[in-house]
Amino acid sequence: MATTRSAMRAVRVFEFGGPEVLKLQSDVLVPVPKENQVLIKVHACGVNPVDTYIRSGTYARKPALPYTPGSDVAGVIESVGEHVTAFKKGDRVFTLETLSGGYAEYAVAAANRVFPLPDKLDFRQGAAIGVPYFTAYRALFQKQCVLQSQCQHFLCSSLRGCAKAGESVLVHGASGGVGLAACQIARACGLKVLGTAGTEEGMNVILRNGAHQAFNHRDPNYTERIKACTGPGGVDIIIEMLSNVNLDADLQLLSCAGRVMVVGCRGRIEINPRDTMSKESSIIGVSLFLATEEERRECATAVLDGIEAGWLKPVVGLEYPLEKVAKAHEDIICSSGARGKMVLLL
Questions:
Q1: Considering only CA atoms, which of 193, 202, 136 is closest in space to residue 170?
Q2: How do 254-262 and 192-197 pair as beta strands?
Q3: I need a surface site. Which of 25, 114, 137, 140 has the fewest CB within 10 A?
């Protein structure tokens, strides 16, 4: 049974472009959950950099216009469609993928993409879980199996974990949502965790969330400081949030058979392929959109176990009301440094 309300506030995009194309409307129809779907009363929605790429029309995946942006939602189940037995009205939940868009008072999601939100986390933290933690887990473990097919993840021997305890990981741009998630997960797995940020405050956030050491990537000599920390062996894995700026330098920091996991990119960069040959290193792209159903379940298991164990603690950064969505999209790209996951509050 659907909610008794027929209209809601929601952000709509009618043309691709800058933040100004984000239009808040108050007469959008409340979606109705179909079979195996749920309707969520949204309390908070995460803002991800990919939201801005899609809005601009420069991303490979373009939704049909008009559309409502947003995927990371936390709220309360308002109603459920047929055959949904895992949830009921009033349940606290989060999701990393909505069908109708998360920048809205209500959102529809497939029931198998929705997860219970424990009381220990508030809705703002719930909105900071989905894309950041699933992406971080995928970057650390799911895209490297061709390199380390025999290693096991700490949660379950059947998982295909390939970053190993004792290895080193550099999270480049670690003070944002995905970066902090990667720090927490890597630390919980027994890796040596290094992180970079652009401000002193960002570095402190990194250190409080799993990093053994933090570096300011605005320091002209920061790569030399990282080399001094890792020694001649270099770093085993780099989680890269801004590869169009950092990839060339990343290749100089890697160990033999090291790998750069490209999570974020905002343009082109020139590199020397010989830098990969000399160490037989790898550059591997990461896209959560391409995860299989099995891989999504693996991510979900790791995330839910992390919440239960207590080491998964989402850090919320800047918060905006829905009316300030355009400002949020400007700030997530142009701000001087992230300090956690950006969220919209409803």
A1: 193
A2: unpaired
A3: 25
Looking at per-residue pLDDT, the higher value among 4 and 65 belongs to 65
Residue 112's φ and ψ, nearest 5 degrees, are -80, 0
Q: What count of other Cβ atoms lies within 10 Å of the Cβ of residue 256? A: 11
- For residue range 99-110, what is the model confidence (pLDDT) as tens digits? 999 999 999 999
Q: Amino acid letter at 217? A: H
Question: Which own/partner contact pairs does 302-306 have at CB distance under 8 Å and 24+ positions apart?
Answer: 302/137, 302/141, 302/153, 302/155, 302/159, 302/185, 303/115, 303/129, 303/133, 303/134, 303/137, 304/115, 305/155, 306/133, 306/184, 306/185, 306/188
Helix (H) or strand (E) holding 124: helix 123-126
Q: Which neighbouring-strand residues pair with 292?
A: none
d(CA 1, CA 78): 9
DSSP result, 313-337: -PPEEEEEEGGGHHHHHHHHHHSS-
Alpha carbons 74 and 125: distance in angstroms, whole number: 8
pLDDT band at 336 (very low <50, low <70, confident <90, very high): confident
pLDDT digits (tens, 9 = 90+) for 40-80: 999 999 999 999 999 999 998 899 999 999 999 999 999 99
